[in-house]
């Protein structure tokens, strides 16, 4: 099991997403305009107020051009210039506003750890400024200035942190929306793939069953052509009817492949599929092909879900198809539907040669297809030769999917 991410790691990851975004050109242009305006106003005022020392003011304003691309470097650089100002005893000047801009920037765009360090440096700067520039004031004025400067520094930093939190929230919402969109697209593709696989299985069952009947009828008609023309005509008629019915059903299946591409069609519209009620017609068609089939229903019949009914129908159809292919001439087949208390049992047996159903490497064919269909409904299929000859297919299909366990 993958451990849940800790809140600190989540915050760091989301901060990385926020800071890793490329800076738009208009934001860079704004920073250039901001730094230029501050230099023109506060830089020139600093020179007018402090003379030559006012040049230090430009060292606190010019770096603001890169405040978004390198917030930590800009803040520490501006702080270094302010430290030089303090060491040489230069007076406070209007250009010191660059410190507040840099502090705000690192609290918004910088890493969390650097933002905390910047707040500590800002608090240290308040103490240094108070000790340097208000030494001749009484203690009340010193405390007042210390509190005022501290409130200003903390207020600027807190406002930046609020902007950061809002940015992280928006970034998290965008990431979640992107993830939901990716999940939706993946589920849509998976649904389309599953639908196409189901349709391919249906086409195989329809074509295989129809062709098996047509082959048997064609062989019988060829054999009876000289001795019994009426039997040959009947076989040809059965071939034609079976071919047309199979072609019609196959066209319906192929039409489903194009349904998603046709506007105005509801993809959730129910699609009629054969069920256990269609088995008598299926068995009559097989009987017309010359195969002797006994059909029996035991237990109390009930209405089945569409998927379960279709599964039972296709298993019987596949069993009869393979009997036509492998059981040989004169084989007798029986189909049993047993409506038990908890499950439907489908049994298809024959007394032919017992060649059975060879498992196929392609999903959806032969015995593999039977087991795959049954597993979707939570059931099982067993197949194999019978003692004394013949072949037997037994499918156990629960009326409801089992709950619990790994599905």
UniProtKB/TrEMBL annotation:
Per UniProt, residues of the DUF7134 domain are 29-166
Class of this enzyme: transferase
Q: Which GO terms describe its molecular function?
A: ATP binding; phosphorelay sensor kinase activity; protein dimerization activity
This entry's Enzyme Commission designation comes to: 2.7.13.3
Gene Ontology CC: one annotated term: membrane
Enumerate the spans annotated as Signal transduction histidine kinase subgroup 3 dimerisation and phosphoacceptor domain. Answer: 195-260
Catalysed transformations (reactions): ATP + protein L-histidine = ADP + protein N-phospho-L-histidine
Query: Which keywords are on file for this protein?
Result: ATP-binding, Kinase, Membrane, Nucleotide-binding, Phosphoprotein, Transferase, Transmembrane, Transmembrane helix, Two-component regulatory system
**Gene3D superfamilies assigned to the protein according to its UniProt record, in alphabetical order:** 1.20.5.1930, Histidine kinase-like ATPase, C-terminal domain
Where is the segment annotated Disordered?
260-280
Q: Could you tell me the superkingdom of the organism this chain comes from? A: Bacteria
Q: InterPro entries of this UniProt entry?
A: DUF7134 (IPR055558), HATPase_C_sf (IPR036890), HATPase_dom (IPR003594), Sensor_HK_TwoCompSys (IPR050482), Sig_transdc_His_kin_sub3_dim/P (IPR011712)
Q: Is ATP-binding included in the keywords of this UniProt record?
A: yes
Give the stretches traversing the membrane: 72-105, 117-135, 141-159
Domain spans labelled Histidine kinase/HSP90-like ATPase: 312-399
Q: Name one Pfam family in it.
A: HATPase_c
Q: Which PANTHER family match?
A: NITRATE/NITRITE SENSOR PROTEIN NARX-RELATED (PTHR24421), NITRATE_NITRITE SENSOR PROTEIN NARQ (PTHR24421:SF10)
Q: What is this protein called?
A: histidine kinase
């Amino acid at each position: 099991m993958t451990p849940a991410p800790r809140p600190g790691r989540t915050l760091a990851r989301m901060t990385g997403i926020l800071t890793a975004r490329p800076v738009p050109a208009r934001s860079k242009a704004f920073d250039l305009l901001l730094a230029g305006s501050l230099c023109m106003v506060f830089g020139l005022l600093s020179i007018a107020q402090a003379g030559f020392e006012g040049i230090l003011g430009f060292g606190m304003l010019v770096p603001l051009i890169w405040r978004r691309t390198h917030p930590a470097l800009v803040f520490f650089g501006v702080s270094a210039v302010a430290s030089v100002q303090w060491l040489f005893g230069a007076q406070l000047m209007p250009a010191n506003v660059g410190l507040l801009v840099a502090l705000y920037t690192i609290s918004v765009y910088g890493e969390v750890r650097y933002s905390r360090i910047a707040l500590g440096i800002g608090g240290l700067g308040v103490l240094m400024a108070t000790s340097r520039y208000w030494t001749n004031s009484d203690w009340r004025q010193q405390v007042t200035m210390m509190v005022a400067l501290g409130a200003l520094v903390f207020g600027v930093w807190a406002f930046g942190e609020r902007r950061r939190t809002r940015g992280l929230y928006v970034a998290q919402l965008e990431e979640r929306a992107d993830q939901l969109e990716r999940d939706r697209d993946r589920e849509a593709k998976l649904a389309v793939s599953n639908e196409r696989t189901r349709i391919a299985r249906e086409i195989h069952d329809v074509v295989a069953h129809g062709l098996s009947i047509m082959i048997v009828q064609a062989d019988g008609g060829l054999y009876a052509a000289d001795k019994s023309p009426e039997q040959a005509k009947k076989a040809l008629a059965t071939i034609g009817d079976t071919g047309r019915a199979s072609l019609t059903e196959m066209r319906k299946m192929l039409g489903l492949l194009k349904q998603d591409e046709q506007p105005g069609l509801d993809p959730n519209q129910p699609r009629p599929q054969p069920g256990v009620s269609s088995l008598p017609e299926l068995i009559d068609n097989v009987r017309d092909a010359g195969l002797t089939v006994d059909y029996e229903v035991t237990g109390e019949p009930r209405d089945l879900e569409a998927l379960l009914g279709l599964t039972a129908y296709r298993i019987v159809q596949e069993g009869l198809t393979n009997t036509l292919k492998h059981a040989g001439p004169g084989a007798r087949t029986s189909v049993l539907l047993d409506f038990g208390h908890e499950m439907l049992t489908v049994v298809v047996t024959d007394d032919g040669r017992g060649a059975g159903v060879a498992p196929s490497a392609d999903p959806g064919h032969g015995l593999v297809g039977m087991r795959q269909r049954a597993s979707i409904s939570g059931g099982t299929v067993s197949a194999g030769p019978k003692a004394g000859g013949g072949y037997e297919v037994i499918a156990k299909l629960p009326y409801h999917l089992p709950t619990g366990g790994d599905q």
